Structure formats: structure tokens, C-alpha cells
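Lab notebook, bench 4. The sequencing result for the construct came back, and we need a structural model before the next group meeting so we can plan mutations. Quick request posted to the team channel:

Model the 3D structure of this chain.
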Amino acid sequence: MDNQRILLWAALGFLLLQVWTSWRIDYGPKPEPAVAGNQPGLTAPTVDQGGINQAATGAAGVAAGVAAANNDLPTPVTDGQQSVTQPADGTAAGENVVVTTDTFEVTLSTRGGDINIVKLLQYPTALETPDDPFVLMSNSNAEYFVAQSGLQSASGEAPNHHAIYQVEKTEYNLGDQDEVRVPMVWQAENGITVIKTFVFQRDRYLINVEYDIQNNTGNALSFNQYRQLRRKPVTDDETQSFIYTFIGGVVSTDQDPYEKIDFGDFDDAGHQTSTKGGWAAIIEHYFLGAWIPGQDETNKIYTMSRDQRHIIGLQSEAIQVPAGGAGKLQSGFFVGPKIQDRMKAVAPKLDLTVDYGFLSVIAKPIFWLLQKIHSIVGNWGWAIVGVTMCIKAIFYKLSEASYRSMARMRKLQPELASLKERYGDDRAKMGQATMDLYKKEKVNPLGGCLPIMVQIPVFISLYWVLLESVELRQAPWILWIQDLSLKDKFYVLPLIMGVTMFIQQKLNPAPVDPIQAKVFMAMPFVFTIFFAFFPAGLVLYWVVNNTLSIAQQYYITRHVLAEK
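Done. Here's the predicted structure in C-alpha cell form:
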């Protein structure tokens, strides 16, 4: 085994991983659309461009609306009493309430208090359109992703996400304030009043949702809250052919701090989990929406698929509100970029949505170093250069041992070729003669491999750090590289990477096997094409790493040869 063979197998494994990822996206199992409504003879409601369930007219329309309402709700918490769910009017539309802060523009609906649209004001859709904010959530059919919440009661009426609320005004602006509160009022004929208040604060991606319940009936009532995210299936234009990032559900429980759930598994009953604290989210590459309950609150996490929509949610235990008394329930909804420091401050383990996999223990310090260097240089591209240089410095001694071994191996190439001519296809004699030569020259054939094997986990960790960091989205470096998260549109960095890879091969001892030699000669060309579609930040790392490796290897090789 030599250094080139290790690199070849590593490259082959990486390519197979990407092929498998692309195959899974294109041909893997897709979730089958579920049909809303369980009652025979009812027409299933359709979804209009506003995302509101619109049923057929007349009595059949009202019945279909009620069926849809019951079909996308968790089973109410009964507390041993008969389950009663408020009938919902499936034809009611509701008004839009627009809230603008320094971080986002949010459109709420008076129908259920749904969060229908979230525009991230500090994250443009593209560099070419800085005034066009990225739309993370929308109730349009093409981009459907909304957040819903409501109350349930096993002993009376309660406003679920089909109820109609009343509002004083339909526009709110944070302005110079540090906080803006948006109240919505729901009243029942039997004397129950619920005020659902959305609380927005400056420089925060967390929306607090509060329920103030006034029970003016003559009986004690129980209420539980539920919060859910509803999203359309993943489409081909949301996936990346060469770099796969997870889009789907994620939950955190007291049993498992981070569990990913594919949309195709949302109907799996095994995901009905009870937990204290935790959270439930739907994530994509750089952004997420997550419902955050009180960490001392016990909830059931549930998933379902309805009307070609995937639903993940949290359902709390019931609280008792005495006759003539009041009760309060609340939750948080984090919606925005996956910035680790902000997510840590919101909920335990929420920062794990920046998914480094099993190498997190290495990746997190690397990201910390990347942040520290960026705080000094003020440019994420130069921060990548700085991190690469630091890693090369840390592993200098290991690299030195590897390059020294390869330099000695290079000197033995003529003798190895001579042995191959002498013994031909007799592998046993060839192997014994080769080992005798290594022993005579005091060369360890694994000396060039082991130091590199030790460094591989670090390099893979850095790869995932650069891939997962929202900080690199639309982050400029120099000249034409104005977005490190996109490919180099002129393919200059991939070409430089291919050249540096070719130079590295020339510095390494050539394989004795002519077929293997041809394969290695083709690798720079193959990797140049492959990396042409990678984000510029990742290619920049490989260019810097290869360049430093060439300089280091050239120096060490000359030094070893001078000694001889």
C-alpha cells in the first residue's frame, strides 16, 4: 500500500458517495400523497394560491371543510373526559396581518393565526437583487411552508388553526421600538375568550406566541396547545446534484438530542414521541423553522402527511382553567438562518441543525477558528485561507514524516522497477524482494500513508464546516468570487486546483504498475471537472491546501535528497 493508492481509494469512495446521494434523490422512495378526509362521499378540499382550504359550495363544502380541519389536527388531550373539537369553517379565509422588524417581514393570517410568509430582510435572494429578500416561508402552492398553532379542549370549544380571530389593525412596524406585540382575539358564545399574541423583538429571529385564556363559563375547562409546521414535498429544483444537504424534519427529545426524519417517513407511527422540552423543526440547507416549547413542558411530537403536505408538530399536556379564572400558554418559533450562536441562545441542541455528522467534535473547533480569523480579517475567503494554513501548520510534523517517506520511496523507484522485470508475475518473490529492499534501505512503506490517514478526519470536518455554514452564503472573497457558496462562474479555481493536483503527482513517486500510473494521470482532469460544480469556498480550500502541500513537499524532498 502506498500514498497514491490511499488517495485513489479515498477519491473513489467520495465519488461513490456522491453518486449514491444523487441516485437516492432522483430514484429513492417518494412519499405518496395522502387524501384528506376519512368520510366516504365527501369531496376532498383543494388548496388555492393563498394556501387556504377551499371546499365545494353548499352543505357538502362545509362538511368537507370540517373533515379537513379534523384531519390535520392531533387528537385532543382528553384528561379522561369526552373529546370535543371545535367545528371549523373550511371556507373562511381570514385577513393578512403584516409585521415588519429589522430582521424579517412576517405575514400572519387571522385564520388560525398562521404564520404564512416570512421574508428574511438581511438575506437577499441573490447578490444581483439586494432589495429582494429571501422568502423562507410562503403559503403559495409552489413554495408552501407555513407554521400553524392552536388550542384544543376536551371539555369545550377552543380556537384551533381554522378559527377566525379579530384584530385591531393589519400592519405593524417595529420602528424604533425594541418590541412589538400583535394581539388577536377569539371569543366563543359560551364565554371563553382567547387572546393570541405574537411578540417580535429587535435583532431576533424568535417569535414568541402567547395564549391568554379567560374562562367565563360556569365550569372548569382543560386546554392544550399544539404547534406544527406544514410543508410541501421536496422538489428536484431544491436538491443539489453534486452536494447533498438534508431537507426534512428534525426533532430533539430527552431520549435523542437530534433525530432527522425524512418526509417519506412522516406517516410512521413510531414518530409519536413524548418528551420533556426539546423542539421540532423543518430544515433546509442554510435555514430552518422550529417550534420551541418551554423546556419544563411535556409534549408529544407527532408527524403526518395530509393533502400532499408534510406536517410535524408538538402537542402539550392539558392545563386546567377554573370557572371564572384565567390560564396562559406560550411557545417560541425560531425562523431564519442557521447561525449557531443565536440558536444556542434559543434552545438546547438547536445548533445541531448545523449538521457536521459524527465529526462534530472536530468540526466545531474548526468553525470556531474560522469565526475568530474572520473577526480579524473581515473576509470569509481569507478566513478559509487562514484556517487552511493553521491546519497545515498543526500537521506539519506529520506531513514532514510523510513527505520524507515518499522522497525515499521515490529514490527506490528504479530498483523497484528492476525487481519487477526480474520476477515478472511471481507475486510472492516480488513481494519478498520488495520487503527486503525496504528493510535494507530502512524505508517504511506505510510511512507516507499513516500521517495522511490521521489528517483525513480533519479535512472532512473542514469540508462539512464550509458546506454547512450560512455565513458563507453570498460572502465575497476577491475579484469575480462574490459568493463563496456558489461555483466559480469562470472555473478559474477548479482549473488551478487541477494544476496543483497534477504538480503534486509529479512530486510523488510514480506507481510501478503502468495501468495504475495512467489512472493517476487522469485524476487531475477528472477532479477538475468534478470540482467545477462545487462551491467556490470548498474549491478555495483545496487550492490553498494543495499549494501549501506542494511548497512543503518540495522543501522537504530537496532537504532529504541533500542529506543523501
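The radius of gyration is 30 Å.
Will bring this to the meeting.
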